Amino acid sequence: MTEVLAIRSDFERFDEWVEAFRESDLELVRWEDLKEGQAIDYVLVWQPNPGMFDQHPEIKIIFSIGAGVDHMSGKNILPEGVPVVRMVETNLTLGMTEYVVYQVLRHHRFMPHYEQFQRDRSWKEIMQVPASRRNVGIMGMGVLGTACAQALMPFGFHLFGWSRSEKHIEGIKHYHGPEQLHAMLSHCDFLVCLLPNTRETRHILCKEHLVHLPRHAVLINAGRGSLLVEDDLLSLLENDHLSAAVLDVFEEEPLPVDSPLWNHPAITVTPHIASMTVPETSAEHIWTNIKLYRLGHPLTHVADMKRGY
Ligand code: NAP
Ligand code: GLV
Q: Are residues 165 and 19 in the same domain?
């Protein structure tokens, strides 16, 4: 019997998903078009609501459209014991890599200053700093953090990483655990945050930790908005401890129109677009896992929902 993959996405990309799965033997159905009592085998979803799966105890795997699964971890959202596979796919990784490299280079080469000079018709030069005199640190050396660090390597930056567990990655000085966080921060002219939102990481970008950055550091947060204490950021920018921030994610999204972050001169705001899942390349990740499941083999990139990522 043909197996069914039900898709519930915030973006209307159903036709793209159908095209992406053309090589599979699955039947794709929009979640909204499911008939009363229709059985499904797999579901692909971004933001499930409580009770969404109540009528579907038969689901075998839940695939997250995003790399993060924090929005699925609320009470009564997920059925017990069903594996949740998070999104790991080429274009999601490349998109984040482009965003992080672009934002690091943009600040490394003083582009926000030059954009202002141009608006002012002012011919001013700032002495260039070689990349070999800059340190870039990444909090969260998972799939995305590691790819970003590796993409920054050829420019000659000194690279630092921080994760929960110990790692040895060529060319990167790696720190791990809460007791090594301040030591890692003390190096970072640029701090890129690509942590997931969990009980342990919530508000980790707070004054208590960020004061350990060198003066005039730049913060780039593309992990989750809940990692950052926005008031602490504003006060660290106010007293020049930080020189700039790039924020792609916010505690409240969309960012409220009256937020002071919107028109702060040292803050770049982007609307959670650092990277997006692309159906064409994601289908391979999902289809591979479904084939592994059918063979009774372990799945890849299963989220540990107790740990939160
Ligand atoms: P991942 O592979 O699971 O990596 C997560 C990393 O965070 C791991 O290195 C992990 O350490 C580390 N970590 C988790 N909890 C920690 C803690 N308490 N202390 C120190 N390190 C901790 O995830 P990913 O695929 O790289 O994605 C990371 C996050 O990026 C997602 O969860 C999502 O929030 C965000 N994201 C944002 C966008 C966007 O457009 N803005 C797009 C995609 C993803 P270990 O390696 O030791 O486990
Ligand atoms: C986007 O934020 C994701 O988690 O993939």
A: no
